[in-house]
Design a protein that fits this description.
Elements (H helix, E strand, L loop, with lengths): L12 H10 L3 E5 L3 H9 L4 E4 L3 H4 L11 H14 L4 E5 L9 H15 L3 E3 L7 H9 L4 E6 L5 H4 L9 H17 L3 E5 L3 H10 L4 E4 L7 E4 L1 H4 L17 H18 L10
Length: about 270
């Protein structure tokens, strides 16, 4: 296995395949706006996911289900305008691909044309086979998503670990192989046993990105607001916080408010 790492000026789906072949891990984070997407891109992640998690962290919904295609396009466009290197991946929101492959293609085309994204992501396996086939046949790259699929939360009824039982684990492995056969360029595995995720990564040639799926996969993804510590109420085992911005922001706003009320802001050097 080569130890030479290529310096990519722009990440593509082929770049990710090369990274897996070279044994180089893939870093992926979410972003939903111009300012933070620019910072994430400059920091060197390979993939920025404009996730339907925007429904939670940007709009305050309990689940990812309510966010619309128009809203996803709005967020994706802002991210695309900021990022100069990362591959921009966009979630197809709930209701835009599950029942009608033609609707899935129309939704994907809108994301690509109106937002300028590079690829789309869909949740599910054999049950959305037709949608994935139609999108890929149109020349649009697709990333799959198996394991815990948040858009199906009302079906599962819980956010607990998936595929612990042998039958579900076998189905997940079969779905992963199917997604590869259909032409998906990568797959996200969410909240499944690490041993199963490792098996999937070993048996597939395409990259496998984990979130709560252990270390023996080809890369990792987290929600930006979670890893920056802006959402202290969300504390799953797989989450590592790299900052405590909730405290930083709260303190800054409190200090600003105090300075305004005391007349300390602006001072003589801060006026014309």
């Amino acid at each position: 296995m080569s130890s030479v790492k290529k310096n990519y000026s722009r990440i593509t789906t082929n770049s990710l395949l090369e990274m897996k072949a070279q044994g180089e891990k893939i870093a992926m984070l979410t972003a939903y706006d111009f300012t933070l997407a620019g910072l994430v891109d400059q920091a060197g992640v390979e993939v920025i996911l404009v996730g339907d998690s925007a429904s939670n962290v940007m709009a305050g919904h309990e689940t990812t289900v309510p966010i619309t295609l128009d809203q996803m396009i709005y967020h994706a466009g802002a991210v695309v305008r900021a990022a100069k290197r990362a591959l921009i991946l966009v979630d197809l929101p709930f209701g835009t691909y599950q029942s009608d492959s033609k609707e899935a293609l129309r939704s994907s085309i809108r994301i690509m044309k109106e937002a300028g994204a590079h690829a789309v992501k869909l949740e599910g396996g054999h049950e959305i086979k037709d949608s994935i086939e139609r999108i890929i046949q149109a020349g649009i790259p697709v990333m799959g998503h198996l394991g815990l699929t948040p858009q199906s939360i009302y079906k599962f009824g819980t956010y607990t670990v998936r595929a612990r039982e042998e039958a579900e684990a076998q189905k997940l492995l079969e779905d992963a192989k199917l997604l590869e056969q259909l032409g998906c360029f990568a797959i996200v595995l969410e909240k499944i046993p690490a041993q199963l995720a490792q098996k999937v990564a070993q048996e597939l040639k395409i990259p496998v990105i984990g979130i709560g799926a252990g270390a023996q996969v080809d890369g990792q993804v987290l929600v930006l607001h979670d890893m920056l510590g802006m959402n202290q109420e969300f504390s799953p085992r797989f989450l590592r916080r790299y900052a405590d911005l909730d405290q930083v922001i709260s303190t800054a706003v409190s200090d600003y408010t105090s300075d305004v009320k005391s007349g300390n802001f602006p001072n003589e050097q801060e006026q014309y």
